[in-house]
Amino acid sequence: MGIPPLEENVVEITISAPTLICGMLPELSEESLEDATSLNQRQWIYGLMALGSGYTHVDDCGVTLQVIDNRTVRCISVCNDDYSLETLAMIKYAFESEDFTIQIDPYAILREVPSPNELKQRRKDSAEEKVSPNGSTIGVESSGMEIA
Length: 148
Hints:
- The protein is an alpha/beta fold.
- It has helices at residues 30-36, 39-50, 82-97, 116-127; strands at residues 56-58, 63-69, 72-79, 101-103, 109-111, 129-131, 137-139.
- A hairpin with a 5-residue loop joins strand 6 (129-131) and strand 7.
- Helix 1 packs across helix 3 (82-97).
- The relative contact order is 0.14.
C-alpha cells in the first residue's frame, strides 16, 4: 500500500495571505505628528485606556479600537480609505509615543467604506434602536403620548 496515484480531476486551491494593514499606513507629515502628540490627543488616549479591558471605541474616522489591558489597545477594523488609514497612522504614533502598545496586524480587518445612502440608512436604523448599558441593542417602538 503506497500513495495512491493522483486523479485526473484535481482541484487547485489558492490561499491568499491576509491584508497587512501596517504596510498600508501612510507616512505622516510633521503637522500630523504634532497633532498626534498634542495634549488633547494624549488626554484622549489616557481617557480611553481608563475605560478598561473590553471597552470598544468606534471612531467616526473609520477606526475601531478595543482596550485589551491597561497598556494595550487593539485595532479591530479600519475603513479602506486614505482618511481612515491616516487616522490609524496618527493613532498608532500617538499610542507608541506614550509607551502604549497598539496591536494592528494580524487582528485588524479592512472594511469597505459604506456609501452615503448606506450611512443614511444606518443612522435611521440606529435612531430607532436603544442601546442598553451592557452594549446590547433593544428595539424601540415609536408610540404616541397624549399630554392633557
